[in-house]
C-alpha cells in the first residue's frame, strides 16, 4: 500500500487496498479497476472518498480499495451513505453493492435515494444472482431460472433496475459492463462528477454460480445506446425498446441537472455539519428555554 | 373547603376540544404557582372516540395522577358514565343539560347540567365553544379569577385571529355567569407564586436534551408516542446547524444515523415498539462496527400494533436483548421530564465514550404526559464529552511518524481512537464483519478472539457513567417496591400512604437497566419483601432482576396492563393483599 503522507497521488496504486478474495475471473475486478482509475483521474484523494457497501461478494469492495470505508449490512448501504453525505458533503461518497443487496433487500431504499436525488454515486455489480450465499436467484434473474432455492424454476419476473431508478427520479442513470472497463470508468467518472443521485448498473459476471451470464453472453447481447437522452421518457422508451429486441441496453441513459437534496436542504454546496460543529459551543440555557417558551 | 391536592378530568370525544381546555387549565394552574401532572387518554384515531385529559395539581411537586378526581367535565354523554367511579365523594360533575342524567347512580356528587351546547350555538353558531364555556364554569367552582384563565387562553391561542380569541373569552365569561346562578358548592384551591416553572412533556425534554447535547443529525419515521421529538427537532435543529430527515422506514432511519455518526456527528433516531423491531439489525451493526448512537424508544402497550396511544413497559426484554450476537449497549430509563432531558444528554456522552448504541427507554405515560418542572437540569455537570476522537495534533503525529491509523486498535481499555473520515493523513475503515485492527474483514481465530475481548473490556466501566438507582424511604423498612419509568409517582405515594396504614415500605427506582447496579440493588433489597411494579403481563422486569436475588428472597410482581400507568391505590392494595397472604 503506497503511503499518502504528502497527499500527492502519483499513481493509481495509491488506491490499492487488500488483495481480493474474489474468484479469479469475477466481474467485480473490472469494476474495482474502473473505480480506482476514475478516482485517480478525477484527483480525488483517498482521504476525501468514502466507499460504503452492503453485504455480498461485491460488497467486499471497501476492503479492496484504499479509501475511507464502511462495510455495513445487507441492503442498508444507501441509508448509511445518505447519513454520511448529509453530515459532510465534502466527502465523495461512493456506494457499492450487489443486485440482491440493492434491488432485493434494499429495494425500498434504492427507490427513495433516487427520489431524494441525494448526491451519491451508486454502483451496483449486477451478476443476476445471489453469489455470496452460493447461487440463488436475484430480482434480476430471469423467469424460470433453476437455482438452489428454485429447483422447479423461478416464478418471479426480473426487474429492470434502470427503469426503476429512472421512474423514481434519479438524475444520472447508466449501465456499464465490467468486461469493458474503459467505458465503465468513464461512466463512473461522469457519475461522480454529477451532482445528484447517480445510478450505475454494471453487468458483472459471476463465473462461479452463473454460467448463463458469462462475459461472452454479455458481449454478444449488449447494445450501446446513443444516450444520454434529453428526456426521461425518451430514456425509458429507448431502454424498453432495446429489451424488446432481446438486447441489453448499456451506456449513459439519462443526465439531468437539478438541485440535489443537500443543496436544497442547506442552501449551499459543500456544507459540512461536521465542520460547522467544530466551531460550536454548548447552547446557552437561555437558548433552550426560549425553545420551550415558543412551543405554543 | 380548601383543596391542597386536586384533580380535574375533561372528557369527550376526539375533536371535542378536551385537550385544549385541559392545556389552558394546566397553564393557568402553573401560573398560580402549582405543580401539575397531566395524563392523556386518547385513542389511536383522529375523531369521534373517547378522549380525556386528567390534570392534577398540588403546591408540592407531584409525579403521577391520583386515585380519584375532584371534578369532571363531560363533553359527551358516555364520558359521564365511564368516569363516574373515579369521582370522589362531594366531587363535581359538569355536563351538558341535553344529556339524560336520570340514571346516574351516585347521589354523593354535585351534578351540574349546564346548557353548554345551547349557549355555544346561540352565541357563536358553533358547538365547538362548549369546552371553554365548561372551563369557565369550572373556574368558578374552583374560585379561579376569570382574568387568570383569560390570560392563558390568549397565550394558548397566540397566532389565531382576534375574533377566535375574543369568542373564546366570551365563552369563558358565559361559563362563569352560568356557574354563578347554578352553583351549590364551591372550592378554594391553593395559590403560590409562579417562579417561572415550565410545563413540559418527556418528548419535549428529550428533544431539548438532544439539542443541548450537540446532536446535529436526527433521522426517524413517525410513530406514536415518540413523534413529538421529531416534530420539535425538525423545527429547531436547523437553527443549530443540524438536520432532521423523515425516512422511508425505521430501518433507513437508524442506518442513516449510523452513517452520520461514522462521519463524525452526534446522531440520534427515535421510535416505538414496531419501529424498534425494525431497527434491531442495525443495533447489532452499531455495536459491532463500534458506532456511537442514541436511540430513543417510547414504549406503548401490546405486541404488534397493540395499543398505539397507551402506555406499557412491555419492551424490556426486547430492549435488553435485541440484536443477534453479543451486542453491547446501555439502557437508561427516565421517569420525569427532567430525567428525559438529562438522560438523553448523558446518552450521547456514553455512546461516544464507549462507541456503543445507547437506548433511552421511555414510555407513553412519560413521553407524552406533561408535568410542571422547576427547571431543566442543564448546569455545569453536563458537558460535551466526546471520548477518544483523534485531535489534529494526534493526526499529525500519525503523518509524521508514518504510523498507520487503525480504527479498531487493540487498546487496554478496549476503546479505540476514532478518526473523522475526511481527515487528511488517516484512512478510516469501519466494518460490520469481524476484522483486524485496521478494519479489514478477518475471520481468523486470532483476531476474532482479541476483538471480542476488546469489546468486552469497553463494557467493564460503563457502570461508572450511568444513572444509579434512586432509593426513597426508610432503609430499615422490611418491604420495598422496585420499578421503572412511570411507576415513580405511584410508588412514592404508596410509600407514604402505606406508612399511614402501619406498613413500612421504601422504593428503589431503577434508572439504568443495562448495565445493572447489581450490588447496590442487592444490598438495598437483601432480606426484604420485594414488590416489583411493572406495566406488563410477563413480569419482564421481575424476571430480569431475579438473578440478583436467587430463590431465597420473597419477590412478588405487581402487574398492570390496561394501557394506563399505576394508580397509587393499585400498588397499595396489591402489597396489602400479598402481605396478608404471607402472614
Ligand atoms: C439480513 C440478511 N439476510 C440475508 C443475508 C445473507 N446474504 C448475504 S449476501 C446475500 C446476497 C448477496 O447477493 P448480491 O447482493 O447480489 O451480491 P453478490 O454476492 O452477488 O455480489 C445474502 C442473501 C444477510 N447477510 N443479511
Ligand atoms: S462467487 Fe461469483 S460474484 Fe462471488 S467472487 Fe466468485 S465470481 Fe465473484
- Mind summarizing the main beta sheet of chain A? 8 strands, mixed
| H/I helix tally of chain B | 19
Uncertain stretches of 5 or more adjacent residues of chain B: none
Cα-atom Rg of chain A, whole angstroms?
A: 20 Å
Identify the overall geometry of chain A: globular
Percent strand of chain B equals 15-25%
- Count helical runs of chain A: 11
Largest protein interface? Answer: A-B, 59 and 67 residues
What gross morphology of chain B would you assign? Answer: globular
Trace the largest sheet of chain B across and list its strands: 11-10-12-13-15-14-21
Low-confidence stretches of chain A: none
Q: What Rg of chain B is obtained from the alpha carbons, in whole angstroms?
A: 26 Å
* Average pLDDT over all residues of chain A: 95
Strand content of chain A: 15-25%
Amino-to-carboxy terminus distance of chain A: 59 Å
- In order across it, which strands form the biggest sheet of chain A? 2-1-3-4-6-5-8-7
What does this structure look like?
- Chain A is 35% helix and 15% strand.
- Chain A is of the alpha/beta class.
- The model of chain A has no long low-confidence stretch (mean pLDDT 95).
- Chain B has 583 residues and is α/β, with parallel strands linked by helices.
- A 7-stranded mixed beta sheet of chain B has the order 11-10-12-13-15-14-21, sandwiched between helices. A 6-stranded mixed beta sheet of chain B has the order 3-4-2-5-6-7, sandwiched between helices. A 5-stranded mixed beta sheet of chain B has the order 18-20-19-22-23, with helices on both faces.
- The longest helix of chain B is centred in the N-terminal third of the chain and has 21 residues, at 162-182.
- Chain B is globular.
- Chain B starts with a strand and ends with a helix.
- Chains A and B meet through strand 2, helix 2, helix 4, helix 10 and helix 11 of A and helix 7, strand 10, helix 9, helix 10 and strand 17 of B.
- Strand 2 (68-71) of chain A pairs parallel with strand 17 of chain B.
- The complex binds thiamine diphosphate and iron/sulfur cluster.
Amino acid at each position: 500500500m503506497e503511503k499518502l503522507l504528502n497527499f500527492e497521488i502519483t499513481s493509481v496504486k495509491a488506491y490499492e487496498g487488500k488483495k481480493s478474495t474474489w474468484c479469479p475471473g469475477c466481474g467485480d475486478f473490472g469494476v474495482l479497476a474502473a473505480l480506482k482509475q476514475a478516482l485517480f483521474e478525477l484527483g480525488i484523494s483517498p482521504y476525501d472518498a468514502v466507499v460504503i457497501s452492503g453485504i455480498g461478494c461485491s460488497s467486499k469492495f471497501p476492503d479492496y480499495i484504499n479509501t475511507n470505508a464502511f462495510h455495513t449490512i445487507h441492503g442498508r448501504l444507501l441509508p448509511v451513505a445518505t447519513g454520511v453525505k448529509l453530515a459532510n458533503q465534502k466527502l465523495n461518497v461512493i456506494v457499492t453493492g450487489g443486485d440482491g443487496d440493492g434491488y432485493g433487500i434494499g429495494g425500498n431504499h434504492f427507490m427513495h435515494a433516487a427520489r431524494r436525488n441525494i448526491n451519491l454515486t451508486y454502483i451496483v455489480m449486477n451478476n443476476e444472482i445471489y453469489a455470496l450465499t452460493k447461487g440463488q436467484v436475484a430480482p434480476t434473474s430471469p423467469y424460470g431460472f433453476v437455482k438452489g432455492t428454485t429447483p422447479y424454476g423461478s416464478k418471479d419476473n426480473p426487474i429492470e433496475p434502470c427503469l426503476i431508478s429512472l421512474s423514481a427520479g434519479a438524475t444520472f442513470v447508466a449501465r456499464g459492463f465490467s468486461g469493458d472497463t474503459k467505458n465503465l470508468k468513464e461512466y463512473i467518472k461522469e457519475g461522480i462528477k454529477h451532482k445528484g443521485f447517480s445510478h450505475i448498473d454494471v453487468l458483472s459476471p459471476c463465473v462461479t454460480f452463473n454460467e448463463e451470464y458469462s462475459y461472452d453472453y454479455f458481449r454478444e447481447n449488449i447494445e450501446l445506446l446513443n444516450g444520454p437522452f434529453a428526456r426521461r421518457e425518451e430514456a425509458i422508451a429507448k431502454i424498453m425498446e432495446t429489451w424488446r429486441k432481446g438486447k441489453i441496453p448499456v451506456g449513459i441513459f439519462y443526465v439531468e441537472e437539478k438541485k440535489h437534496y443537500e443543496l436544497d436542504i442547506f442552501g449551499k454546496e459543500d456544507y459540512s455539519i461536521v465542520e460547522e460543529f467544530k466551531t460550536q459551543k454548548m447552547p446557552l440555557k437561555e437558548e433552550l428555554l426560549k425553545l420551550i417558551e415558543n412551543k405554543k | 373547603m380548601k383543596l391542597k391536592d386536586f384533580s380535574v378530568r375533561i372528557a369527550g370525544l376526539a375533536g371535542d376540544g378536551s385537550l385544549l381546555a385541559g392545556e389552558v387549565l394546566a397553564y393557568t394552574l402553573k401560573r398560580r404557582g402549582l405543580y401539575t401532572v397531566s395524563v392523556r387518554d386518547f385513542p389511536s384515531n383522529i375523531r369521534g372516540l373517547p378522549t380525556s385529559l386528567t390534570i392534577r395539581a398540588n403546591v408540592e411537586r407531584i409525579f403521577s395522577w391520583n386515585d380519584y378526581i375532584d371534578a369532571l367535565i363531560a363533553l359527551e354523554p358516555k364520558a359521564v358514565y365511564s368516569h363516574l367511579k373515579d369521582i370522589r365523594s362531594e366531587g363535581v360533575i359538569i355536563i351538558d343539560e341535553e344529556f339524560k342524567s336520570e340514571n346516574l347512580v351516585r347521589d354523593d356528587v354535585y351534578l351540574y347540567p349546564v346548557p353548554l351546547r345551547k349557549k355555544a350555538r346561540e352565541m357563536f353558531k358553533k358547538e365547538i365553544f362548549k369546552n371553554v364555556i365548561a372551563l369557565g364554569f369550572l373556574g368558578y367552582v374552583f374560585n379561579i379569577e376569570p382574568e387568570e384563565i383569560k390570560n392563558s387562553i390568549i397565550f394558548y391561542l397566540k397566532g389565531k385571529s382576534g375574533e377566535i380569541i375574543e369568542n373564546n373569552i366570551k365563552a369563558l365569561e358565559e361559563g362563569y355567569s352560568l356557574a354563578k346562578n347554578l352553583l351549590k358548592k364551591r372550592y378554594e384551591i391553593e395559590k403560590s407564586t409562579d417562579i417561572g416553572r415550565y410545563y413540559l412533556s418527556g418528548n419535549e425534554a428529550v428533544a431539548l436534551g438532544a439539542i443541548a447535547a450537540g446532536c446535529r443529525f436526527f433521522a426517524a419515521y413517525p410513530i406514536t408516542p415518540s413523534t413529538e421529538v421529531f416534530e420539535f427537532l425538525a423545527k429547531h435543529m436547523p437553527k443549530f446547524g443540524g438536520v432532521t430527515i423523515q425516512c422511508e422506514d425505521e430501518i433507513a432511519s437508524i442506518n442513516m444515523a449510523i452513517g452520520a455518526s461514522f462521519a463524525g456527528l452526534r446522531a440520534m433516531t427515535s421510535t416505538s415498539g414496531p419501529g424498534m423491531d425494525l431497527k434491531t439489525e442495525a443495533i447489532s451493526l452499531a455495536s459491532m462496527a463500534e458506532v456511537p448512537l442514541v436511540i430513543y424508544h417510547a414504549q406503548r402497550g401490546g405486541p404488534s400494533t397493540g395499543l398505539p396511544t397507551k402506555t406499557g413497559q412491555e419492551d424490556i426484554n426486547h430492549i435488553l436483548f435485541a440484536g443477534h450476537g453479543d451486542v453491547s449497549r446501555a439502557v437508561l430509563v427516565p421517569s420525569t421530564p427532567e430525567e428525559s432531558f438529562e438522560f438523553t444528554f448523558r446518552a450521547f456522552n456514553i455512546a461516544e465514550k464507549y462507541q456503543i448504541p445507547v437506548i433511552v427507554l421511555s414510555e407513553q405515560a412519560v413521553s407524552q404526559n406533561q408535568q410542571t418542572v422547576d427547571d431543566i437540569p442543564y448546569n455545569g455537570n453536563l458537558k460535551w464529552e466526546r471520548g477518544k476522537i483523534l485531535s489534529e495534533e494526534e493526526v499529525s503525529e500519525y503523518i509524521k511518524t508514518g504510523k498507520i491509523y487503525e480504527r479498531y486498535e487493540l487498546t487496554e481499555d478496549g476503546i479505540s481512537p476514532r478518526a473523522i473520515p475526511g481527515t487528511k493523513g488517516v484512512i478510516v475503515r469501519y466494518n460490520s464483519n469481524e476484522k483486524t485492527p485496521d478494519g479489514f474483514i478477518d475471520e481468523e481465530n486470532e483476531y476474532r478472539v482479541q476483538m471480542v475481548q476488546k469489546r468486552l473490556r469497553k463494557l467493564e466501566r460503563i457502570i461508572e457513567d450511568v444513572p444509579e438507582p434512586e432509593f426513597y424511604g426508610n432503609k430499615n423498612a422490611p418491604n420495598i417496591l422496585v420499578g421503572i419509568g412511570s411507576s415513580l409517582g405511584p410508588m412514592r405515594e404508596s410509600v407514604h400512604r402505606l406508612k399511614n396504614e402501619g406498613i413500612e415500605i421504601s422504593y428503589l427506582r431503577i434508572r439504568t437497566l443495562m448495565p445493572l447496579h447489581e450490588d447496590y440493588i442487592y444490598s438495598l433489597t437483601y432480606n426484604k419483601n420485594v414488590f416489583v411494579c411493572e406495566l406488563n403481563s410477563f413480569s419482564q422486569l421481575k424476571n430480569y432482576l431475579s438473578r440478583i436475588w436467587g430463590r431465597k428472597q420473597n419477590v412478588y410482581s405487581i402487574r398492570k396492563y390496561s394501557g394506563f400507568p399505576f394508580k397509587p391505590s393499585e400498588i397499595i392494595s396489591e402489597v396489602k393483599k400479598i402481605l396478608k397472604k404471607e402472614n
